[in-house]
Amino acid sequence: MKDSPRPAQAAKGMNICICGWYFYKEFIAGLVKANAKYPVHIVCNQEGDCQGLPSSSRKNVGLDWGAYQYYLLYIWDRHSPVLFMQDDTQIHSQVGFDKVAAFTESQAFIFSTGVEASYNSYAHGRAFYMKPVALHLLLAHGGFWYDKHNTGFIAKGGYRTETPPKGCQHHNAGIHRFSNFIKKLEREGYSEGNLAVNKLEYVPEFTFGRRGKF
User: Fold this and answer.
1) Domain-embedded: residue 183
2) C or N: which end of the chain has fewer Cβ atoms within 10 Å?
3) Largest CA distance in the chain
4) Closest to 82 in 3D by CA, of 18, 17, 8, 143
5) Enclosing domain of residue 30
6) CA dihedral angle for residue 1, residue 79, residue 96, residue 122, rounded to 10 degrees
């Protein structure tokens, strides 16, 4: 698969970064529709059919957080808000993208329901939104941390159920680092008005999978 970077263009509001792994046809087809309004770029951790959408190919280093870092460094236009999302997701309505684009927070974790949010301790890497102010703060601290020694390790159960390979951290290390960074920003005052971070939003138009299963 060859890289197909998005051509230079004026910002159209929210952009969408997808970590590509499963490439479910219905999900990608939904992204093709969304791309007309919200530019999509798929960072592929393995080969897959992107149905003509702009994409980049990379080795699976650091799982989803490695893909998000790639997007931040090499694809992000430096002035658009971004929806980051894993590709084991079901899109029930394009309205979901419009809801996310209308968020006022600088950073928010996205869930389908409150039950899902509670189960995931109110933070996950399956879907989250960031405005440029938050992304620039993140860049100033090196961007998304990811485990450079994790080349695909995911424990079969919870992240504590298996010992990672030597040098590799558990598979939730990326979200733990990101969540801690966001909480640090919140403590430092980035939690008022339009600078709000570490917020929750619910978008029932999306269903998020877990390791490709729903």
Assistant:
1) yes
2) C
3) 46
4) 17
5) 15-208
6) 90
- Read off the pLDDT of residues 80-89 as tens digits, 9 standing for 90 and up: 999 999 999 9
The CATH number for 97's domain is 3.90.550
Residue 72 lies in a domain: yes
Q: What is the mean pLDDT of residues 190-196?
A: 63
Does residue 191 have a pLDDT over 80?
Answer: no
* Number of domains, the chain: 1
Structure-token pair, residue 86: 């894993």
91: closest CA among 154, 35, 157, 13? 35
Determine the residue type at 43.
V
Residue 145 lies in a domain: yes
Distance CA 187, CA 136 (A): 18
Mean pLDDT of the chain: 87
* Residue listed under structure tokens 């998304």: 144
CB 62 within 8 A of CB 43: no
Who has greater pLDDT, 90 or 156? 90
Residue 213 maps to a domain: no
Does the model's pTM come out above 0.85? yes
Contacts of 194 by beta carbon, 8 Å cutoff, 6+ apart: 104, 105, 106, 131
The pairing of strands 107-111 and 127-130 is antiparallel
